[in-house]
Amino acid sequence: MARELESDLTDCMVIMDKILVVDGVTKEYPGRVAVSKLSFEVKKGSIHGFLGPNGAGKSTTMKMIAGLLPVSSGSITLFGETVQPDNLTLKNKIGLLPENAPVYLDQTVEQYLKLVSKLHGVKHVKDQVDKVMTDLSLLDVRKRLIGNLSKGYKQRVGLAQAIVYDAPFLILDEPTNGLDPQTVVELREFIKKLSAEKTILFSSHVLPEVEQLCDQITIIHQGKIRATGDLHEIHQKFRQGLVMRIGIGQQESLPDLSSFGKYDITHENIVGKEKQYHLTFQDDRDARAEIAKYLMNKGLNLYTLQVESPELEDIFLHVTELKK
């Protein structure tokens, strides 16, 4: 009996850990299938990267998750409830920032955020709007028309409307696209802070940004899931051979290492006092200990010897079949 109870509690905790479950979702339009049999999960408290080339089906999927589009088949469950366009109880639990922020250009920043707050039943509208404007550095433009703002400020307003009613699940579609570097850094840091209290589905074409922010990813291509899971697990799954970085003295040359396996030197550059080589071995055998001993016996100055994961860009190009 005790074991059965423990098992039930474990199952319950696993279910609660999954904020979003997309299960076999297909979306069909007359004459075409936009997405087919999509299945992936988003864990509580994660920033989940949602990646894919243009036309892959990302926007369609995010609209279905937000309850703006009905699924043709399959199911989407958020906080244990089925997502449907008529499920009004979920509306206040989802904060959506689409690629083109849904702002009213003829309203001031403050007017617009107060309107959104009231529509979502926020109790202390002024306090909440002031807090969000402070968090997103919008106080100085609170009385300005949104239509007269720069793209960076409009994007801040778009993010503000997604969080002003304190939704626990956020869908952010290209939140830093086209912004100046300073604004990009500020918004990334803010999104990191948000993840302490919220779960975020995050779409971006900037793959290094995804690696910085996300702990889970899903890659979609031609309407189908190509990879999904924890970022570390994805790196390990798609590692082709072993990538090693070796740093020796600037005036030194790397000797032949073919006795440790077939390899290619994919990159060579100067980093500080080092000359660094990036090698890709054809097999996964980690021969660092033997290589270190070999290089030191050759009298070389060994500064760096690391095994590295493949770049997310390489994985993305591989699974979307864009890498020739």
TrEMBL record:
<keyword id="KW-0813">Transport</keyword>
<dbReference type="GO" id="GO:0005524">
    <property type="term" value="F:ATP binding"/>
</dbReference>
<feature type="domain" description="ABC transporter">
    <location>
        <begin position="20"/>
        <end position="247"/>
    </location>
</feature>
<comment type="similarity">
    <text>Belongs to the ABC transporter superfamily.</text>
</comment>
<dbReference type="Pfam" id="PF13732">
    <property type="entry name" value="DrrA1-3_C"/>
</dbReference>
<dbReference type="InterPro" id="IPR003593">
    <property type="entry name" value="AAA+_ATPase"/>
</dbReference>
<keyword id="KW-0547">Nucleotide-binding</keyword>
<keyword id="KW-0067">ATP-binding</keyword>
<dbReference type="InterPro" id="IPR025302">
    <property type="entry name" value="DrrA1/2-like_C"/>
</dbReference>
<dbReference type="InterPro" id="IPR027417">
    <property type="entry name" value="P-loop_NTPase"/>
</dbReference>
<dbReference type="GO" id="GO:0016887">
    <property type="term" value="F:ATP hydrolysis activity"/>
</dbReference>
<dbReference type="InterPro" id="IPR003439">
    <property type="entry name" value="ABC_transporter-like_ATP-bd"/>
</dbReference>
<dbReference type="Pfam" id="PF00005">
    <property type="entry name" value="ABC_tran"/>
</dbReference>
<protein>
    <submittedName>
        <fullName>ABC transporter ATP-binding protein</fullName>
    </submittedName>
</protein>
